[in-house]
Amino acid sequence: MYYQKLDDFPKNFLWGAASAAYQIEGAYNEDGKGPSIWDTYAHTEGNTYKGTNGDVAIDHYHHLEEDVGLMAKMGLKAYRFSVAWSRVIPDGEGEVNQAGLDFYIRLVKLLKENQIEPVLTLYHWDLPQALQDKYLGWESRKTVAAFAKYCRVLFETFKDDVKYWVTFNEQNVFTGLGYRWGNHPPKVTDIKRMYAANHIVNLANATAINLFHEMVPKGLIGPSFGYGPVYPLTGDPNDVLASVNADDFNNNWWLDVYCRGEYPYFMMKRLQAMGIAPEVTAADQKLLKSAKPDFLGINYYHGGTVQTNRLQKKVAADDKKDFSSTDPYLMQPKEDQAQSPEIPMFNSVSSPYLEKTEWGWEIDPIGFRVALRQVYEKYRLPIFVTENGLGAADQLVDGQVNDDYRIKYLADHVLTMKEAITDGVEMIGYCAWSFSDLLSWLNGYRKRYGFVYVDRDDDGPKELKRIPKASYYWYQKLIADNGADVQEKHD
């Protein structure tokens, strides 16, 4: 769609930036904080790049005033942060650690004093280790009750000061990486357990939303989902069908539960046939249906491209050939086949049209517009972009960081967001990832996302000096102009 003139961003649009507790706070064992699964995982040799961890991170815990001061100088309208569950309730379900809670009370107070809207994420991957040890974490329904208690503490504490709340950050990512691929905690490689744990998280999400609406009637709450549109590689109807399948597999499996309270029929039938579907009781169905999010958080980095599943392609290549003895998927026992349920549905490929970042992520600002349109059209919930950004190996030269490549990336995405608003998408705000450099979960400190450079590396924290990058001043101007001149994004 081409427009001669784009609509303005809403006057109350929340220009923000984001972070996560484990990636920035440090102070991993101070003031009564208990260990999280990420503390344990990162302390285990071989799990992370060069053994990097969040013990110190960028030491936001001890640089709180300085960091909020930089946010205020930048003109941020919103700051999305997460609370470390084990800092507030060290064992996940017992006594509240007031010293830990006080840190977040100070943070919210400072944000409010500087006219920055706090956006509080309840869970950004750092489950208390005690719950993992006692209940196997998200594999037990008892963790739902523990999460509800934790939520109640935060709702009661911040009900008058925090309007926007996020329940879970990227549930599709932490369940997949933690329970299927085994490269996040709890380091499980069993897709049936992944779908079972994912269902428990869905129950926790619904429980939290219902409790929130009881306790914080003037607030707004919703999950934050890592969304990517799915493209067919060609116009071949088989590739188009594969993209429909992949959309169900990658997106609808989570979003339909969040927004409609039910699992999509196609995926549920496939998983049931493979014997890996979660157990969903009548009480579960009722709970999921009862919880209504107020908005949908979208984390956007890239989408994906697919083609016809490779089993069907082999049939098409030689429909007379008996390939049942040559295809590895069909040679596997049924229980092994179930570990890769997408194989009969679609085959993922690289897009021939898109450039990639240093870390191999496709750069697709138009896909951002596609994503916003698709999600809003389907669920008709206001959208809050809770993450979008570029990871790069930024270099400090003569005391400065010239990250024009990040400015270009962000400007292209902000422009397509403005086009989506002109299309009619209702949007609350945009939180770039991230405000400052931070620990990349598996890539250490070399992969930088921030507007603010933090002088540390994978070998140690150095002086942790904060240095605004070129993108900091670009975003400062963008916020001041409410995105009015984004067309002149990098001329």
TrEMBL record:
Active-site residue numbers: E387 (nucleophile)
Pfam families (alphabetical): Glyco_hydro_1 (PF00232)
Keyword hit for Hydrolase: yes
SUPFAM superfamilies: (Trans)glycosidases
PROSITE patterns: GLYCOSYL_HYDROL_F1_1 (PS00572), GLYCOSYL_HYDROL_F1_2 (PS00653)
Molecular function terms, GO-annotated: hydrolase activity, acting on glycosyl bonds
Matches recorded under InterPro entries: GH, GH_1_N_CS, Glyco_hydro_1, Glyco_hydro_1_AS
Its EC number(s): 3.2.1.-
Record key words, sorted: Glycosidase, Hydrolase
PANTHER family: ARYL-PHOSPHO-BETA-D-GLUCOSIDASE BGLC, GLYCOSYL HYDROLASE
Family recorded in the similarity comment: Belongs to the glycosyl hydrolase 1 family.
Protein name, UniProt field: Glycoside hydrolase family 1 protein
Source organism: Lapidilactobacillus gannanensis
